[in-house]
Design goal:
There is one protein chain. By secondary structure, the chain is mainly alpha-helical. It contains 9 helices and 5 strands, in the order E-E-E-H-H-H-H-H-E-E-H-H-H-H. Strand 1 and strand 2 form a beta hairpin.
Length: about 300
């Protein structure tokens, strides 16, 4: 007499329907081609960032490196280095620790990077406004203002992430019903509202940096980074605006790949647009990296 039993969760019947086969877990692994490509890109970009940081440290006493606050440049480079390594948390089988660290780590590192960019922009604006004798902004010129900007705006993101982890933290999740022969293993954001709050706050920082940099792009200051910051913020916002619909329309490991690509692309946008021009002058045009050129250019801008 024929009889039929239902396969338990995580199993599916074979073609003869006389045996149950375990479903295969599917996630973005380090062994598959997509995971290998993303890992190589993350490591390559982090090495490039380390080389840029080394170049800036070696030439730290030159005018172009000291311009627009050297300490903020170091903070930006270190945060970009960490942001390039951040995608490694997204690759591999999700577990409690990686799921807990993925999004908050990404949000905090990017908030520090964008806060340092915002600090650079505010430094340019305040320095120009403080050139008039007896101006109120004179006492704000220096490292104190820049460091306060980085600390304050990074602290706000820290609070959002702390609330997220305390109330509804991300956790590993398995979808055993969507596919017949596979189990989708991924990280559940926990609170979707707080996840998008982290992204929204990054968008807020990028928007403020873009507006200030756009307004400051014509200020008469040698090695003015405002033009480069404006373009970098355009790249950053374009990447993450395209991320949202793409992320929501993809499934499984490709959702993770989309977020990793957005992290790498936006980080490279900041590195390439803001810091590569300085590296170009330091390495290939050292004659422009002199105080005499700075003074001459400043006089030309003023006139």
């Amino acid at each position: 007499m024929d009889y039929c039993i239902t396969c338990q969760e995580g199993h599916y019947p074979n073609k003869g329907r006389d045996q149950c086969i375990p479903k295969i877990p599917r996630f973005l692994s380090f062994q598959e081609p997509l995971g290998i490509i993303l890992t190589v890109l993350a490591l390559l970009f982090s090495v490039i960032t380390a080389l840029v940081l080394g170049t800036f440290i070696k030439h730290r006493d030159t005018p172009i490196v000291k311009a627009n606050n050297l300490s903020l440049t170091y903070i930006l480079l270190i945060s970009l280095f960490l942001s390039f390594l951040c995608p490694l948390l997204f690759i591999g089988q999700p577990n409690e620790l990686t799921c807990l660290l993925q999004q908050p780590t990404f949000g905090l590192i990017f908030s520090v990077a964008l806060s340092s960019v915002l600090g650079k922009t505010i430094t340019v604006v305040v320095a120009f406004m403080a050139t008039k004798p007896g101006n109120f902004y004179r006492k704000w010129v220096g490292k104190r203002l820049a460091h306060s900007v980085v600390f304050s705006f990074s602290l706000a993101q820290t609070v959002i992430c702390a609330v997220w982890l305390a109330t509804s933290p991300p956790f590993p999740d398995m979808d055993i019903f969507s596919l017949t022969e596979e189990i989708i293993v991924q990280c559940n954001e926990g609170s979707v509202t707080l996840f998008y709050s982290v992204l929204g706050y990054l968008g807020f920082l990028a928007s403020v940096s873009f507006v200030l940099a756009f307004l400051a792009r014509q200020l008469p200051d040698s090695f003015n980074e405002a033009k480069f910051i404006t373009f970098s913020m355009l790249v950053f916002c374009s990447v993450w605006l395209s991320f949202l619909p793409t992320y929501l329309s993809t499934r499984m490991k490709y959702m993770v790949a989309v977020e990793i690509f957005s992290i790498l692309a936006s980080s490279m946008g900041l590195l390439g647009c803001i810091l590569f021009p300085k590296c170009y002058i330091i390495i290939l045009k050292p004659e422009l990296n002199r105080k005499e050129h700075l003074v001459r250019k400043k006089h030309l801008n003023i006139s």
